[in-house]
TrEMBL record:
Pfam families: PhoX. It comes from the Bacteria. This is PhoX family phosphatase. InterPro entries: PhoX. Residues 247-267, 587-625, 782-802 are annotated as: Disordered. It comes from Novosphingobium mangrovi (ex Huang et al. 2023). Residues 247-260, 788-799 have a biased composition (Polar residues).
């Protein structure tokens, strides 16, 4: 922050921190000296004196400085989330000080941590410059007393770090003043009996180790006694998805026969068990010195073979019957878990994304299917002849391997796994506090390539769940519960039963974005959804019942005319405004040509690569946001705009049809993926919450590794209508109108982190106090192999690493060296 220099105040970023209606700091200083004169002047002089200094602002001259140190009786200014240290300095003459105390006199309440003559607090969230006053008093052995008042003016939150530059280094780079601790990594043991990870391909028992490709994560607080504690910032359970694999590093010399089989049983078992979800206990050893508890009783692995319960309207459908579940109400496992959602009753929602490719269907299966089945299988992409990793080619009758073969081989559905693909593509609810609980697949939320499931809880409203379907030209969905939120349910002990109440009975909608900046939620309800028209060789699809609509939600969304989007990924909600944000990662010309744009997916342009070639479409992606009419979760209409457009500022520094948001090299980005707002329990999530943007990019990788940005977004409608001039590879142009949000600036968007080589930044949460940020680093070195790894992270985080060290996905804990709130 800047020093206070004159009666006109000071500028902190572009925020006016000294409005003319407030008392000036000079007036406060005058009052302070008057008080001191009254204390120390007059007929009787004392031997006790407070030793102050002149007014202090902070130890720096811009908004990237953090800790504010102020002496008793002095006045100073800071902004929300910063650490403030109040110090008392006493001269006691010939007698000793018998007592001293700091106390708060006025302003928003803060937690004062008092140690001797010093008191520390975090500046609270404020919407305008606000004064906090504190009193300091001392008394000596003779009974003489002295006191002083200190005023701290707190201004609204600003981004308080210097932007991290582009980087191709093999480390997680963070701003000056921040530190990185590597937490759980691929293969780390989750039980006392499991040996340490050798990281040479020989390790086994991934049902009791941290899985691969860590994705979305969430920190669930624990009390010192081991009970749920939503306010705990020192102990908790880290729940993390494990989306996929870097098989080249899981085995001694890479995988065997992975493209066609037969696969060795031990390799396939390792790969299967390295998917799913992990629960591991994290603990702060003091002053945010984090580690994980390898033998915690809470630790758990949920794999593609963990028993699951199917709940909601589709449970019991004949289309969910398998050799394992003859009534279609049970299943085993979850796979390709990408983003997540957190319920209002402290459960984790994990989302099954690119699950379709894991299943094998032989050529003989085509003639055995009905036209309806073929249409549905094609719409979801269940058409691979071997399946990802060819697990079903293992020479075994163990269902761990045979269930990945969806080919019809028996007389009925109870004799094979023809409908096993229908058991995937759901949102799965997990109770992290109960390692013995059975996760529940919530069929009311629909089946697709679920990226995430942001849960919006608002007093007196229905529960809303916002979900992206992560494939090109797929849709944004919303689920609205029948039940109105009851705040008492937040603390219920049977958390999955509360999930039954809100997540099994409701209405699923899909979004249509109209060109005028409005949109409509289209209900996917049997009886109101028309038949899906014939497309190409696929005949008209007639829905049989509500279960059919939910199992084949993509077909139902087609039928009602939803808007195809540029890969809808994570959803996140602003905890203050209720506005919903959706990342649209990218698209290409083969999926959406020059004449295939629309207002919500408006760009078509070329992205030059280092080699000189150019790819066309929307290679850098964008972020759309919407505000429900009436701010109600059950609204059927909304307003929208495009909050940010990704772009390479070096390639397009000033082209207003590509770099629409005016990005610079300090805040440019490509392929936004993860999206999350800071928790509303700390200043970074209050008033004007910090939005975090993670990337999974292939377009700017010649310039920088993937990244994490921090933003202070505005609101829907803070920009205006624009018309873009799109261009294709032939040079043809076409105009497209859209609605853009306010331009990005150094004050409202900065790069906070750049990851190691060839990684994706994904998964993010913070402790409730906002002083530790957890971030996932996925698949570093993904283009290398066992003999020549192209990353050595996380070993490389500490410095140089041996050339043969294999990379591992891992979570990092990021802390501010002065203990302040992250990003502020």
């Amino acid at each position: 922050m800047t020093e206070i220099s004159s009666a006109s105040g000071y500028t902190d970023g572009d925020v006016d921190t000294n409005p003319t209606t407030a008392v000036s700091l000079e007036a406060l200083a005058d009052a302070r000296y008057s008080r001191r004169q009254a204390i120390f002047g007059g007929a009787k002089a004392t031997s006790l004196a407070l030793m102050g200094t002149t007014m202090l602002a902070a130890c720096g001259t811009d908004d990237t400085e953090s800790t504010l140190v102020v002496s008793a009786g002095d006045n100073a200014a800071t902004s929300s989330g910063r650490v403030v240290v109040l110090t008392g300095s006493v001269t006691a003459g010939n007698t000793s000080v018998s007592s001293s105390a700091w106390s708060q006199n006025s302003g928003p309440d803060v937690e004062l941590i008092v140690s001797g003559l010093t008191a520390t607090f975090i500046a609270p969230a404020v919407s305008e410059a606000t004064d906090l006053t504190f009193g300091f008093g001392v008394q000596n052995a003779d009974g003489e007393a002295a006191s002083a008042t200190t005023t701290i003016r707190v201004s609204p939150a600003v981004l308080g770090f210097s932007a991290v530059a582009h980087s191709l280094e093999d480390i997680a780079a963070v701003p000056a003043g921040y530190s990185v601790t590597v937490m759980t990594r691929l293969g780390d043991p989750l039980a006392a009996s499991v040996p340490a990870y050798a990281n040479d391909g020989t390790d086994t028992d991934f049902a009791h180790r941290i899985g691969d490709h860590g994705d979305a994560l969430h920190f669930f607080g624990l009390s010192s006694a081991g009970a749920r504690d939503d306010n705990s910032s020192t102990r908790g359970l880290m729940v993390q998805n494990h989306e996929n694999l870097s098989t080249q590093y899981l085995h001694p010399n890479g995988p065997t026969n992975v493209s066609s089989g037969p696969r060795p049983e031990d390799e396939a078992k390792k790969e299967i068990e390295a998917h799913g979800v992990s629960v591991s206990e994290y603990a702060d050893g003091g002053d945010r010195q984090w580690s994980y508890v390898a033998d915690s009783s809470f630790n758990r692995r949920i794999t593609p073979m963990t028993p699951m319960a199917l709940r909601g309207p589709a449970a019991g459908s004949g289309m969910l019957v398998t050799a394992y579940s003859n009534d279609g109400t049970a299943g085993r496992g979850t796979i390709n878990n990408c983003a997540n959602g957190i319920s209002g009753w402290a459960t984790n929602l994990t989302c099954e994304e690119n699950w379709a490719g894991y299943f094998r269907r032989d050529a003989s299966d085509v003639a055995l299917r009905t036209d309806r089945e073929l249409t549905a299988l094609a719409r979801y992409g269940v058409s691979v002849r071997t399946g990802n990793y060819a697990w079903s080619t293992v020479a075994s009758t163990d269902p761990m391997f045979t269930k990945w073969n969806a080919t019809i081989t028996g007389a009925t559905a109870t004799d094979d796994y023809r409908y096993e693909p229908n058991q995937y593509g759901w949102v799965v609810e997990i109770d992290p506090y109960d390692p013995t609980s059975t996760p529940r697949k919530r069929t009311a939320l629909g089946r697709c390539g679920h990226e995430g499931a942001f849960v919006r809880i608002a007093e007196g409203q229905k529960v809303g769940v916002y979900m992206g379907d992560d494939s090109r030209r797929e849709y944004l969905y919303k689920y609205v519960s029948n039940a109105t939120w009851d705040a008492a349910d937040a603390d219920a002990s049977d958390r999955l039963a509360i999930g039954d109440k809100y997540l099994d009975n409701g209405t699923l909608y899909v979004a249509r974005f109209d060109a005028d900046g409005t949109g409509k939620w289209l209900p996917l309800v049997f009886g109101s959804v028309p038949n899906r028209p014939a497309v190409g060789t696929a005949p008209e699809y007639v829905f049989a019942d509500q279960a059919d609509i939910l199992i084949n939600a993509r077909l139902a969304a087609d039928a009602v005319g939803a808007t195809p989007m540029d890969r809808p990924e994570w959803t996140a909600g602003n905890p203050v405004t209720g506005e919903i944000y959706l990342t649209l990662t990218n698209n290409n010309a083969s999926n959406r040509p020059l004449d295939g744009t629309d207002a919500a997916n408006p760009r078509h342009y070329g992205d030059p690569k280092l080699s000189g070639s150019t790819s066309y479409g929307n290679p850098n992606g964008h972020i759309i946001r919407l505000r429900e009419d009436g701010d109600s979760t059950d609204a059927t209409t909304f307003a929208w705009d495009i909050y940010l457009f990704g772009a390479d500022a070096t390639d397009y520094p000033s082209d207003a049809s590509v770099n629409v948001s005016g990005l610079t090299t300090d805040n440019d980005f490509s392929s936004p993926d993860g999206l999350w707002f800071s928790r509303e329990s700390n200043p970074a999530g209050q008033i004007n919450p910090v939005l975090w943007i993670e990337t999974d990019d292939g377009a700017m990788t010649d310039r920088t590794n993937c990244m994490l940005l921090a933003a202070l977004p505005g609101n829907v409608g803070d920009g205006g209508a624009v018309t873009l001039t799109n261009k294709d590879s032939t040079g043809a142009t076409m105009q497209q109108a859209t609605i853009a949000g306010a331009a990005a600036t150094a004050a409202n968007l900065r790069r906070f982190l750049v990851g190691p080589s060839e990684c994706e930044i994904t998964g993010i949460d913070m402790t409730p106090d906002g002083r530790t940020l957890f971030v996932g680093i996925q698949h570093p070195g993904e283009r290398g192999d066992a003999a020549t790894p192209t990353s050595h992270w996380p070993d490389s985080q500490a410095g140089s690493a041996a050339a043969t060290v294999r990379p591992r996905s891992a979570i990092i804990a990021i802390t501010k060296d002065d203990g302040g709130v992250i990003a502020l």
